[in-house]
């Protein structure tokens, strides 16, 4: 599945380079027009990130996201700044389909495990951002500022007892770079964790990248910057995924 992505900072669409808030590029886009086009082309789900909320929970862009929900029927998964059960309830009440949990899955594993049980595995996506050193997939948290001792494999194993289903895995060395995805990574984790629907993210710059990712067996590909910069169209991306 192709999942178009939009990151928002202070009410504007933006892309960060490797998660760096100081290295950002804003995009002047008609979001409503994009959503209409995506709906007409057959997009099944959209990925949104609240970068303001991720940085400061008091600056969550709920008004913006409420407006977005009001003018599209496409299911949306949303992440950024989700720290409490109340945050999750608020987003589900607004009409979001899934919530994406990042740092908290490492900082407070027991709480997030409880959420998987309460809301069900179809409603929760774990966003696991990794830095690969000597083939160890170390997870980074707090906007990629802090490397943990947890590995990707350990965390997936931990949450799998609560029927973890969706994992958004990003190799941070690729994010926002348009340098191509880490194909070796996705081949490896898809083979190891057959029960997980992986969402691949980071580095996608061409249709051939999508073609290569489809062959790894990932469930979905999240595409942000390359669509915003019109390196290919949503129609071309969807056709590539369906026809591979």
Automatic annotation (TrEMBL):
<keyword id="KW-0368">Histidine biosynthesis</keyword>
<keyword id="KW-0963">Cytoplasm</keyword>
<dbReference type="InterPro" id="IPR011060">
    <property type="entry name" value="RibuloseP-bd_barrel"/>
</dbReference>
<feature type="active site" description="Proton acceptor">
    <location>
        <position position="7"/>
    </location>
</feature>
<keyword id="KW-0413">Isomerase</keyword>
<comment type="pathway">
    <text>Amino-acid biosynthesis; L-histidine biosynthesis; L-histidine from 5-phospho-alpha-D-ribose 1-diphosphate: step 4/9.</text>
</comment>
<dbReference type="InterPro" id="IPR006063">
    <property type="entry name" value="HisA_bact_arch"/>
</dbReference>
<dbReference type="InterPro" id="IPR013785">
    <property type="entry name" value="Aldolase_TIM"/>
</dbReference>
<dbReference type="InterPro" id="IPR044524">
    <property type="entry name" value="Isoase_HisA-like"/>
</dbReference>
<feature type="active site" description="Proton donor">
    <location>
        <position position="129"/>
    </location>
</feature>
<protein>
    <recommendedName>
        <fullName>1-(5-phosphoribosyl)-5-[(5-phosphoribosylamino)methylideneamino] imidazole-4-carboxamide isomerase</fullName>
        <ecNumber>5.3.1.16</ecNumber>
    </recommendedName>
</protein>
<dbReference type="Pfam" id="PF00977">
    <property type="entry name" value="His_biosynth"/>
</dbReference>
<dbReference type="GO" id="GO:0005737">
    <property type="term" value="C:cytoplasm"/>
</dbReference>
<dbReference type="GO" id="GO:0000162">
    <property type="term" value="P:L-tryptophan biosynthetic process"/>
</dbReference>
<dbReference type="GO" id="GO:0000105">
    <property type="term" value="P:L-histidine biosynthetic process"/>
</dbReference>
<dbReference type="InterPro" id="IPR023016">
    <property type="entry name" value="HisA/PriA"/>
</dbReference>
<comment type="similarity">
    <text>Belongs to the HisA/HisF family.</text>
</comment>
<dbReference type="InterPro" id="IPR006062">
    <property type="entry name" value="His_biosynth"/>
</dbReference>
<keyword id="KW-0028">Amino-acid biosynthesis</keyword>
<dbReference type="GO" id="GO:0003949">
    <property type="term" value="F:1-(5-phosphoribosyl)-5-[(5-phosphoribosylamino)methylideneamino]imidazole-4-carboxamide isomerase activity"/>
</dbReference>
């Amino acid at each position: 599945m192709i999942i178009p992505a939009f990151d928002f900072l202070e009410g504007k669409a933006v892309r960060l380079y490797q998660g760096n808030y100081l290295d950002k590029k804003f995009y002047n886009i008609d979001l409503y027009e994009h959503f209409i086009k995506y709906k007409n082309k057959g997009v099944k789900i959209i990925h949104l990130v609240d970068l303001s909320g991720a940085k400061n929970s008091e600056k969550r862009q709920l008004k913006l996201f409420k407006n977005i929900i009001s003018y599209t029927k496409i299911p949306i998964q949303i992440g950024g700044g989700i720290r409490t059960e109340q945050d999750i309830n608020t987003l589900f009440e607004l009409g979001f389909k899934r919530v994406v949990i990042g740092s908290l899955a490492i900082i407070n594993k027991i709480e997030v495990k409880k959420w998987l049980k309460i809301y069900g595995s179809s409603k929760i996506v774990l966003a696991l951002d990794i830095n690969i050193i000597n083939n160890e997939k170390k997870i980074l948290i707090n906007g990629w500022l802090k490397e943990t001792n947890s590995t990707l494999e350990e965390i997936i194993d931990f949450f799998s007892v609560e029927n973890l289903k969706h994992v958004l895995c990003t190799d941070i060395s690729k994010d926002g770079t348009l340098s191509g995805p880490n194909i070796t990574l996705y081949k490896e984790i898809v083979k190891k964790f057959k029960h997980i629907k992986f969402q691949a993210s980071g580095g996608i710059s061409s249709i051939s990248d999508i073609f290569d990712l489809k062959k790894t067996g990932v469930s979905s590909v999240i595409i942000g910057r390359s669509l915003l910069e019109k390196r290919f169209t949503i129609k071309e991306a969807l056709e590539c995924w369906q026809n591979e």
